[in-house]
Every structure is written in C-alpha cells, then in structure tokens.
Amino acid sequence: MIRPRSSRTPGRHRSGQPYSPVHRRVWDGPPRAEAELLERSHPCWVVLYSLGNRRFYAIATWAAPRPVIVEGDTAEEVRDRMWETEIARPSELRAA
C-alpha cells in the first residue's frame, strides 16, 4: 500500500538541509576518567569502564598462559585486585 507523504518537516540528515551542530553527550564521564587515570598509573594493565555493565575491568598486559582479567564495581576495588594479582603472580613473570 502506498502511504501519503507526511506533512512533517524533513530531518536534519536529509540532503539539502543546512548544517546544524549536534551536542555530543559523554556517558558516565567521571568513571571513564577514573579508568583512564588508573590505566596511566599502572602501565602493565589496560583498564576499561563498561557503560553497559557500569563496572571496571582491568586486563593484564604481561605474558601469561591465559588472559588475566579482574573486575569490580569501583576503581578502588579494581586497583586493589590489580595489586593482589601482581603480588600473586610468579616471580619469573615479574622480571619480564
């Protein structure tokens, strides 16, 4: 069935429409900044903040038989788990 054309004005993405700036929304800015700061202060880790889960994740960058991943609800919790993991890893990996 062919529908009649809508009388509404065309959207801003249609060709011929003038450029209009769009506000860029930063979701969960402070936790993402915390994750970035934590990653900069611990060079042996990649630290991420999941917007979907609202959790912090840290992945170790050293050679290991399988990936080393820790997670937590807060940046402090992940930092503590990262420290515990570094202390617990074998000494031959610490020298690498």
Characterise the protein shown here.
- This protein is 32% helix and 17% strand.
- The protein has helices at residues 29-41, 75-88, 91-94; strands spanning 45-50, 55-60, 69-72.
- A hairpin with a 4-residue loop joins strand 1 (45-50) and strand 2 (55-60).
- The chain is elongated.
- The relative contact order is 0.12.
- The model has no long low-confidence stretch (mean pLDDT 85).
Write a short abstract of this structure.
The chain is of the alpha+beta class. It contains three helices and three strands.
Structural class: alpha+beta
Helix content: 25-40%
Order of strands in the sheet with the most strands?
A: 1-2-3
Largest sheet: 3 strands, antiparallel
Give short descriptive properties of this protein:
96 residues; 3-stranded antiparallel beta sheet; 3 strands; 17% strand; elongated
Describe the protein's topology.
Blueprint: H1 29-41, E1 45-50, E2 55-60, E3 69-72, H2 75-88, H3 91-94
